[in-house]
């Protein structure tokens, strides 16, 4: 279901749709289309630059190909030794898929959140926006994983990083009964289920967002959850270290607090890592709401 409103969609929905269409023209991975991966990096770099950011590339080689993490900061960025935050998403696709939900949806939200924050009355000076390469297999957890390269550099340089927020698969929502699973859904304590339902969430229906942290990120999770509006897309904070399948893992491994904001991907989306993960399946109305709430949350967090 493509929930881009017919006729006259809102400007934000339209912009998210346009970004998604451009990035979904081809695969973006070293195995099947390294040129497509490079073209995606060029597009992201240009978008950040046009939005008024200073953009840098963290370049490293994998199998003789140049791979790039793209980092954008305000021109008056506070500096790496000052307290700051990272908002990031990976832009590569798994081999064999265009990766609309995983992870174009999150990249579009990353880019539009950055643009809207830059255009706000008091743009925050202490946020780094990072688009990572090589999150998908065969790179996940390996030295060729873009976020591993970035997180390791942050630790090596002694960056005063207060926390990282990973945007992962944020475009697939459904009201179908029985459409949602979670690794610990069965046997979940009754008080946890009661809290979930108190937020208007049926844990077996895939129409909400999960905010995932580990034990060391629990305080960060509570702070971010309080800042992130639950209207109209409800959210569920989860201390669930087993949900490690994205870029936040690399920051956990380096001792930084980190969260993942996600539609839960494979636990909901039947198109996960398939050729059917296309733009037509994305819910742009929900993505626009997430973007607006993320802008507000990042403004609160950065104060």
Please provide a written account of the structure.
With 303 residues, the chain is of the alpha/beta class. It has a single domain (11-301), classed as 3-Layer(aba) Sandwich (Aminopeptidase), CATH 3.40.630. It has eight helices and eight strands; from the N terminus they run H-H-E-E-E-H-E-H-E-H-E-H-E-H-E-H. The protein has helices at residues 11-23, 34-50, 100-118, 146-157, 190-198, 218-227, 248-253, 284-301, and strands at 53-62, 65-74, 84-90, 127-132, 161-168, 209-213, 235-239, 258-262.
Query: How many independent structural domains?
Result: 1
Unreliable stretches covering 5 or more consecutive residues? none
Query: Quick one: CATH superfamily?
Result: Zn peptidases
Helix and strand element order: HHEEEHEHEHEHEHEH
Summarize the structure.
The protein is α/β, with parallel strands linked by helices and 303 residues long. The chain has a single domain, classed as 3-Layer(aba) Sandwich (Aminopeptidase), CATH 3.40.630.10. The protein has helices spanning 11-23, 34-50, 100-118, 146-157, 190-198, 218-227, 248-253, 284-301; strands at 53-62, 65-74, 84-90, 127-132, 161-168, 209-213, 235-239, 258-262.
In terms of topology, how is this protein built?
Layout: H1 11-23, H2 34-50, E1 53-62, E2 65-74, E3 84-90, H3 100-118, E4 127-132, H4 146-157, E5 161-168, H5 190-198, E6 209-213, H6 218-227, E7 235-239, H7 248-253, E8 258-262, H8 284-301
Parallel strand pairs: 3-4, 3-5, 5-8, 6-7
Antiparallel strand pairs: 1-2, 2-4, 6-8
């Amino acid at each position: 279901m493509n929930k881009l409103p017919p006729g006259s969609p809102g400007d934000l929905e339209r912009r998210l749709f346009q970004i998604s269409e451009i990035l979904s023209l081809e695969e973006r991975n070293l195995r099947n289309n390294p040129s497509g991966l490079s073209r995606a990096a060029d597009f992201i770099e240009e978008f950040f630059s046009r939005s008024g950011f200073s953009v840098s590339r963290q370049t490293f080689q994998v199998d003789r190909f140049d791979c790039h993490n793209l980092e954008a900061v305000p021109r008056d960025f506070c500096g790496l030794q000052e307290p700051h935050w990272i908002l990031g998403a990976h832009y590569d696709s798994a081999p064999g898929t265009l990766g609309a939900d995983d992870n174009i949806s999150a990249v579009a939200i990353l880019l539009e959140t950055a643009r809207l924050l830059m255009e706000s009355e008091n743009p925050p000076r202490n946020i780094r926006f990072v688009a990572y390469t090589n999150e998908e297999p065969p790179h996940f957890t390996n030295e060729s994983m873009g976020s591993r390269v970035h997180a390791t550099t942050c630790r090596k340089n002694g960056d005063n990083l207060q926390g990282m927020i990973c945007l992962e698969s944020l475009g697939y929502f459904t009201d179908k009964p029985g459409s949602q699973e979670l690794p610990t859904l069965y046997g979940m304590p009754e008080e946890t289920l009661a809290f979930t339902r108190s937020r208007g969430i049926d844990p077996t229906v895939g129409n909400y967002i999960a905010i995932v942290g580990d034990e060391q990120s629990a305080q960060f999770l509570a702070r971010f959850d309080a800042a992130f509006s639950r209207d109209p897309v409800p959210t569920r904070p989860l201390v669930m270290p087993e949900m490690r399948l994205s870029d936040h893992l690399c920051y956990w491994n380096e001792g930084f607090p980190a969260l993942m904001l996600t539609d839960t991907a494979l636990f909901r989306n039947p198109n996960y890592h398939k050729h059917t993960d296309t733009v037509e399946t994305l819910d742009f109305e929900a993505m626009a709401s997430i973007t607006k709430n993320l802008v507000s949350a990042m403004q609160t967090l950065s104060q």
